[in-house]
Design a protein that fits this description.
The protein is mostly helical and 80 residues long. It has a single domain, classed as 434 Repressor (Amino-terminal Domain). Helix content is 54%, strand content 0%. It is built from 5 helices and no strands.
Length: 80
C-alpha cells in the first residue's frame, strides 16, 4: 500500500510555493522529490528529519506527513 503525501504536498505549496524549492532545501533534484512524493522512492530518515525542521512539524503530526496510507477508492454497487 502506498503512502499519502497530500498533507506534505500542501505544506510545500503553502510555505515554499513549489516542489523545486523543497528539493533545493533537501539538496535533491526535483525529479527525486517527485519520485518520493509519488511513492516510487521512500524518504530517508535524514530527509524526514530535515523536513520536520523546515516546516516545524510537531511530533504528533509526523504520522500524517510521512506514514499515512493511501485509501483505495472502492466502487459502489447499485442495488435495484
Amino acid at each position: 500500500m502506498e503512502h499519502d503525501y497530500s498533507k506534505l504536498r500542501g505544506k510545500i505549496k503553502e510555505q515554499l510555493g513549489n516542489e523545486s524549492k523543497y528539493a533545493e532545501l533537501l539538496g535533491l533534484s526535483t525529479a527525486s522529490i517527485s519520485a518520493k512524493l509519488n511513492g516510487k522512492v521512500p524518504f530517508s530518515l535524514k530527509e524526514m528529519d530535515e523536513t520536520i525542521e523546515i516546516f516545524n512539524i510537531l511530533p504528533s503530526e509526523i504520522y500524517d506527513y510521512f506514514f499515512k496510507k493511501k485509501v483505495e477508492k472502492s466502487s459502489t454497487l447499485n442495488e435495484a
